[in-house]
Design brief:
This protein has 545 residues and is mainly α. The protein has one domain (2-21, 34-406): Up-down Bundle (Sodium/glucose cotransporter), CATH 1.20.1730.10. It is 73% helix and 0% strand. The chain contains 23 helices and no strands. The longest helix has 55 residues, at 158-212. The termini are far apart.
């Protein structure tokens, strides 16, 4: 009962404050609904970016991956700061100069209508079939591991309980996204973000105390250092999940897309009141990400120490290790609070992705292709109608993901299918003046085909008589992703040489947003990059290469 009461109390507090702070907002126009009226400040942008990223696939998935494979997986938290700096200094100024609401809008300005239509469709299919189901599945699994839902509900069948949990989370998230618009999403993100940081730190604190016994937190750190020295290496070996060399190829490309051109993420920064506010918010998020290993990596090591090193290797699935840790180390009165925080994180990622999906549909399909003369009210209504279709699709697909060895690794692999082609054409579009639209359209299709073929079409069998794929067989998955990126960039450059644009593209300032940069953006960005290198150097042991 204590767990349930604390869960309901925190969840109700966030919902009530979000309604109070946003119920008078403009939800009837596209700027008001999709970009919060372009008036988001640095703190809200940072909080929303952080919590949109920090969902159950991070809390449960990344800690589970670390439980299995060690510290080198901090790459997804530490190196990602490099791409956040790129967003602040390179990508965001160019997006805000165009005054766009979506990434496909920018691509239409640069490459034409066909390119916008293709990228919009790719985003919509990927979000509905990959991103949203992963968020819901990982969230449901995390919640079921933290709270004894079977005991509370009396439902013993795990499959039925999974379906019901997925649909409950999906319906709650849909209400936030489809009735409140971007600002309600951003405000609830920020409130939940505070709870998540507190809760995540508490798990680490109590976990280290459990490992250290009477010696406390410092003794816990010493025990981990002594108990698993080979796993405390920031450098991934050739046979590990993220080998060190892949940081400079596909792994970095995946992070760059996610933080710099992923509609779900950058929509928060596109709602900034000006470039300076956007850069402050993005860089603040980067600084907070440097704390990520404390609650997204260290708990995985703590769980390994408790259950494998000290506990004698019990059979705990990777993605259930975090939930087990929460139940074992967190005081009963705080379990409900943390469950509410986890639900908030799940809802944040889900409603953010759903809000971005409806934005892409209403502005990229409905307004641009179906009903060009649609009023602002009709555009918003179309987004809500389509949002429910996508939400129901995602809630139906999510439980079908049951059985994945690591939901986090599955997510990174599947996301690369659409991440890489879109990132390539955005980068080439921003850096070139003469590359034509036909080059971007060809690159999109070629990239999708190469990645799908490399992932799913076997080219014979290996020595163990198992299917042999280009990705994971010929080379590591992330090296394959990086190779595809290079191929489609080269393809665009070749087409540009053969058939360049008649006139060079001119990037015109729309006037929607003041694009005067924050004067400290560059030094703060450099400081963050130095911090990344320092953290890696402290834990580096290159002998594994």
């Amino acid at each position: 009962m204590t767990i349930l009461l604390s869960f309901l109390a925190f969840t109700g507090l966030v919902a009530g404050l979000t309604w109070y702070l946003t119920h008078k907002d403009d939800h009837g126009t596209s700027d008001g609904f999709f970009l919060a009226g372009r008036r988001l400040g640095p703190v809200v942008i940072a909080g929303s970016l952080l919590l949109t990223n920090l969902s159950a696939e991070q809390l449960v998935g990344l800690n589970g991956a670390v439980f299995k494979d060690g510290l080198h997986l901090m790459v997804w938290e530490v190196v990602t700061v490099v791409t956040i700096v790129l967003l602040a200094l390179f990508f965001l100024p160019r997006f805000l100069r165009s005054g766009v609401t979506t990434v496909p809008q920018f691509l239409e300005e640069r490459f034409g209508h066909t390119c916008r239509a293709l990228t919009t469709i790719i985003f919509l299919v990927a979000y509905a079939a990959i991103l949203l189901p992963i968020i819901l599945y990982a969230g449901a699994q995390g919640l079921m591991a933290i709270i004894d839902l079977a005991g509370l509900t009396g439902i013993e069948d795990k499959t039925i309980l999974l379906w019901l949990t997925v649909w409950l989370i999906g319906l709650l998230g849909s209400v936030y996204a489809l009735f409140g618009g971007l600002r309600s999403v951003a405000v609830s993100d920020t409130l939940n973000g505070i709870g998540l940081l507190i809760g995540g730190m508490l798990i680490t604190y109590f976990g280290l105390k459990a490992v250290g016994g009477d010696g406390g937190v410092l003794a816990g750190l010493d025990a981990i250092r002594e108990g698993q020295p080979e796993r405390l290496n920031s450098i991934g070996g050739p046979k590990q999940t993220v080998p060190f060399t892949t940081i400079f190829t596909g792994a970095f490309m995946i992070m760059a897309f996610y933080w710099c051109t992923n509609q779900q993420i950058i929509q928060r920064s596109l709602g900034a009141k000006d470039l300076a506010a956007g850069q402050k918010g993005v860089l603040l998020c980067g600084a907070l990400k440097l704390l990520g290993p404390i609650y997204l990596v260290l708990p995985g090591l703590i769980a390994y120490q408790l259950y494998v090193v000290q506990g004698g290797s019990p059979e705990i699935p990777n993605d259930k290790s975090y939930g087990q840790l929460v139940n074992d180390v967190l005081p009963v009165g705080l379990v409900g609070f943390f469950a509410a925080v986890v639900v908030g994180a799940i809802l944040s990622s889900f409603n953010s992705a759903l809000n971005s999906t409806t934005t892409l549909f209403s502005l990229g399909i409905y307004k641009a292709m179906i009903k060009p003369d649609a009023s602002e009210a009709q555009v918003v209504r179309s987004s809500k109608f389509f949002g429910w279709i996508i939400a129901i699709t995602a809630m139906t697909l999510a439980p079908l993901l049951a059985g994945q060895d690591s939901i986090f690794n599955y997510m990174q692999k599947m996301n690369a299918i659409y991440f890489i082609p879109i990132l390539a054409i955005v980068v080439v579009g921003m850096l070139s003046k003469r590359i034509p639209g036909i080059a971007a359209n060809t690159a999109l299709i070629a990239g999708l085909v190469l990645l799908i073929v490399g992932y799913f079409i076997p080219f014979g069998t290996n020595a163990e008589d198992k299917p042999y794929y280009l990705s994971g067989g010929l080379m590591h998955d992330f090296h394959y992703v990086g190779t595809v990126f290079a191929i489609i960039v080269a393809l665009m450059l070749v087409i540009g040489l053969i058939k360049p644009r008649p006139e060079p593209w001119v990037h015109v300032h729309s006037g929607d947003v003041d694009i005067k940069p924050w004067k400290y953006a560059m030094p703060v960005g450099i400081a963050l990059l130095v911090a990344v290198v320092t953290i890696y150097a402290v834990f580096a042991d290159f002998s594994v290469l």
